[in-house]
Amino acid sequence: MTQCLLTVHAHPDDEASRGGATVAHYTAQGVRAVLVTCTDGGAGEVLNPAVTDDFTPERFVAVRSAELDASARNLGYSAVHRLGYRDSGMDGTAGGAEAFVRAPLDEAATRLARVIADERPDVVIGYGTNHTRDPHPDHIRANEVLTRRVDLLDHTPAVYHIAFSRRRHRALHQACVDSGVPSPYEGGLSAPPGAFDDEWITTLVDVTKGDAVERRLDALRSHVTQVPPASGWFALSPQQLRDAFPYEEYTRVGAAPREAVVHDLFTAPA
Asked: Does residue 258 register a pLDDT over 80?
């Protein structure tokens, strides 16, 4: 039976910037990947100065939806599900009555549970509870909805939270310094210890095999309105990224912190 991996993300482009190489890694091995995107991304702004279109709100949502589909194809997703909520914005005031943060928790969890029940994934990936570096209200809500849905299923997949260690942050910053390119990671070095997830990481997925890193970068480029070609995401080449830090990091929900990490999302910690 084909293994299935399902990811839960808040907005279009999150699927590329958070764990995108992991999905590319597993789909190259024949794993079926399913993407759930909670909001339409409509509260965002055009961040690429090369895009000069004067979008209506409806057109902007449509463009971001098309970018999401293109990104999902690059990563190898077999299906994309949209929960149908409006983007709440960075301060949580956008989206009106249909904003994700205003949706009743059980209603949103039920929508997600229906998708998970239909797809029956072996592994589910979502966001954790540490939002020190990432306080977007939709990301916080995505964690709450994913956590609540556990009670609504008749099967229990392995659930992982995307993690980011200070070790990884430092390694990528140093690679930028060594290469003489501006480091998008420099500001994060002064973040407080609790901003990173080092002590909770249970699983490291090696994304150096094949073209997983290239496909993640291509997925990011699919989000033309959001990612300028000169973005810090592209400061390092794929090989430099692999050499600097060869893993994407996760915390398995319910697993105790451990010194010996696991290297496969489909393998339970001993």
From this structure: no
